Amino acid sequence: MNKLTVGVLTALAGAVLLFSLLLPRLSGGDDGGAGTVSAQPQTAPQQNDRRLAVRAVVMEPQTFENRISSTGTVVADESVTLQAEVSGRVTSINFTEGELVNAGNLLVKINDADLQAELRRAQYRRNLAEIREQRMASLLERNATSQQEYDTALNELMVIQAEIDLINARIAQTEIRAPFDGIIGLRAISPGSYITPQTYITELQKVNRVKVDFSVPERFSGMVVQGQAFRFNRQGSENTYDGEVYAIQPRVEPDTRTLRLRGVAENTDNVLLPGAFVEVDLALRAIDRALMAPSEAIIPEMGGQSVYVYRNGKAERRQVEIGVRTDRRVHITEGLAQGDTLLTTGMLQLRPGMDVRIAEIRSSAQQ
Length: 367
Prior knowledge:
The longest helix is centred in the middle third of the chain and has 29 residues, at 113-141. The chain is built from 5 helices and 19 strands. It has helices at 3-28, 34-37, 40-48, 113-141, 147-172, and strands at 52-58, 62-82, 88-93, 100-101, 106-110, 175-177, 182-184, 194-195, 202-217, 229-234, 241-253, 258-266, 277-294, 299-301, 304-311, 314-325, 329-334, 341-343, 356-363. The chain is 26% helix and 41% strand. The protein is an alpha+beta fold. α4 (113-141) packs antiparallel against α5 (147-172). It folds into 4 domains: 53-63 and 288-366, Beta Barrel (conserved putative lor/sdh protein from methanococcus maripaludis s2 fold), CATH 2.40.420.20; 68-77 and 208-286, Elongation Factor Tu (Ef-tu), domain 3 (Beta Barrel), CATH 2.40.30; 84-111 and 174-200, CATH 2.40.50.100; 115-167, Helix Hairpins. The strands form 3 sheets. It has a 6-stranded antiparallel β-barrel with strand order 2-9-12-11-10-13. It has a 4-stranded antiparallel beta sheet with strand order 6-5-3-8, with no helix packed on it.
């Protein structure tokens, strides 16, 4: 390639570059680059406005139902560990594991052969004592014997009857019966086992109705009453169950600063098992016409809380009193009124009397 060719190519490249630079100006005409200036009418006022842009909510009254979320444990309505009152050999087991048993059913029988022999001997003695007492009573009516001799015969009969009652009580101790209707658990003994009062036999659970134990923070102790409704669900299930508070511990736990509650719930299908973990949702009293502020709008300070409200284009600081607090909202009991415009952003930059511009506004009832 000779020098003439190189020179021609260089000239062409320069012409193309010059044309590309002049093309936007030629296409813009008299507007002088309207493509970039067209956005200026929207952004220029905002760039020149030195007021702080903030978001706000208009305070509107609403019905607020305060709710507490807690965790709890399912407890059987009645529960007992079955153990023997006396030592002995098991002669019979009269239940099937996991079945429903009724109150009074004989579950386990311990050998009572010696007691049965004692009972028969005492019954024979009672029969003789009854005959003697009747004979002495007949003689006493005819004045053929003394009152003292009759009293002695009657006393002997009563002593023998007391011995029989004692033997029957000891025999009853060899019988383990169901104290209430419930579902029997897994047994830990077999026929022929020698058991003592310390031997674990099985458990009996009454679960057609269950209890739910849970706790609430101490500050809510004055808002919980007997008969208060709550809802709960268990892990592994999407079903929600209804319960009712029926007992309140009369003291606050000093270690956790919580108040223990116990509720009851129907369990007709027996799906709620004792010991299960549940999540509890307890509804406290409803507050009518409550002013609820976003929690980010509250400024903590020494001795209380304050907020900023929008008034005549400026930020005005006000002291407020708060009530119940949730994870996102705070109940304002004093300091704000219906219709006040509460600032919710720019808390660190705001100062009393500062000029502000509201960039976004909504109703507090829409939170």
